[in-house]
Specification:
binds zinc ion; two-stranded antiparallel sheet; mainly beta; 5 strands; 37% strand; 54 residues
Length: 54
């Protein structure tokens, strides 16, 4: 099954994180239906809960 990447804007809100409040646009792949998007901050390693479609 072919899955199209979905551009999402991910923003980390972890206190003290170097990229706290910085929004990154990333291509994400839904891994189930209905789509569930999971992202992890590349700087602090915490799950990013602030995900919005770009
Ligand atoms: Zn972070």
């Amino acid at each position: 099954m072919e899955v199209e990447p979905v551009p999402m804007q991910a923003t980390c809100h972890t206190e003290g994180c170097p990229v706290d409040g910085v929004t990154f646009t990333v291509d994400m792949y839904p891994n189930e239906a209905p789509p569930v998007f999971r992202a992890q901050c590349g700087r602090c390693g915490q799950p990013v809960t602030d995900l919005v479609p770009a």
